[in-house]
Each structure stands twice: as structure tokens, then as C-alpha cells.
Amino acid sequence: MTFELVASFHGLVIFTELEWKGKRTGDELEALVSAKLGTRLHPIERFDLSQGDHCSGMDHGDLSCLPRNILVHGDNLQVMRTLLEVKGECIDLIYVDPPFATGSNQKYQVLIGEGTRVNAEWDAYIDTWQDPAEYLTMIQERVWFMHRLLKSTGCMYVHVDEKMCHHVRLILDEIFGRENFLNEIIWVYKRWTASARKFQKLHDVIFLYSKTGEYTFNTLHVP
Q1: Fewer beta carbons below 10 Å: N end or C end of the chain?
Q2: Rounded to an integer, what distance in angstroms lies between the CA atom of residue 73 and that of residue 200?
Q3: What confidence score (pLDDT) does residue 190 get?
Q4: pLDDT tier at 158 (50, 70, 90 boundaries)?
């Protein structure tokens, strides 16, 4: 990975760009939109849909009349590609908590059965990468689609940790534009002090970006 600095004659840096093996060009990212999906989205279950929200076409894979609120289970890249195709700029707010490049696959446990219940372990998501370049390409592709899906008044929160936050910040700057960076939020949490040869990890980072300068921001009020 390298940092490319582009400067003016007077030595003022115009922009900083992160380069890595496998980085998508703008044309390659645009081509992802027209790439064919391996699967279609199909409704599984509906909850409390009003008559105005009913979309009979969804039973046949027609997503042009998606209801206002939906929960989708599937590969997020395929889902975003489909939403962009049928809905365009349709999202007001995105909060994304991507893998942190921890080097280990994440699992979760569920209790199965009645009476004597069995604790089963399932795979949650893969977080192992052959090298950081694979991780960055995964982030770049998804951030690009999220940016396209946001309305002009929309914002996105990106939750990362200290391992890759600096790299992710440069990708966000490149896709959203540095002028649309709003905040770096530090999420502090407590852990028991452990005997170690370094300071404890006690915080994560959340970046806030807007799509344009005409974004919506709701002021927080603490009672």
C-alpha cells in the first residue's frame, strides 16, 4: 500500500489518495452496477403491512414497489446493487459496522431445543484476509454503493477500530470528498486492567460523512 500525494506548484497538497493492489478504478466501480446478480431478492415474511404498503409484485421478484421499511438477509453488495437499480438514491441514513480485519472469523452462539437446550455455534462473518489489500477492496466497493444509495441530504456513520481506521478514512475521503467529512466520534468503553506490555484498547472510532453540503442533522438534546 502506498500514499499518493498530489501537490500544487506552491507545495500545497490538493488531495491524498491511498493506493493498493486490487484497488477498483472509477470505471470498474461503475461496472459493478450493471453486473448481473447471481440471485434475486424474494419476500419471506411480512409484518403489519398496511394496504398501501402491499406489493404483490415482490412475490415474483419485482422490487419496484418496495415498502418503506424492509429487513434484508443476504450479501450486502448484491442487496445494495439491487436497491440501487430499482430505487436509486433512497436512503436517508446509513450506519455501518464492517469487519475490523481482526484476522479471525466471528461466530455467535444460539440455544436450540426445548427443555434441555443445546448451545450451538454458528458462523457470523468472515474476518480473515490474505493481506490488507483484500480488506480495503471490500470496503471500497461497499462504501461506493452506500454513497450512491444515499439521498443528497443523507449521511453515513462508519464504525471502525484502530487497526484500519486510517486507511478507511482515506477511502471515505476519496469517495465522499474531504469537504463532506463532518465528525470523528470516539466511542469509549471500559475494560478490566490487564497485565500487558501496552495500553489497553479502550475505544472505537465512528466517522460521520454527508453526501452533500445540504445534509440533514438532528441536534442531540440530553434531558
Answers
A1: C
A2: 35
A3: 81
A4: very high
> Which residues are within 8 A (CB) of 116 and not within 5 positions of it... i.e. 6 or more apart?
none
Counted domains in the chain: 1
Which segments of the chain does DSSP mark as H helices, in order?
26-34, 76-87, 132-149, 165-176
Q: Cα separation of 208 and 185, whole Å?
A: 8
More confident residue, 95 or 38: 95
User: Which pLDDT belongs to residue 70?
Assistant: 78
Residue 65 lies in a domain: yes
User: What is the C-alpha separation between 55 and 161, in angstroms, rounded?
Assistant: 40
Coil vs helix vs strand at 125: strand
Any domain includes 218: no
| Domain, as residue range, for 161 | 4-43+61-210
pTM here?
0.79
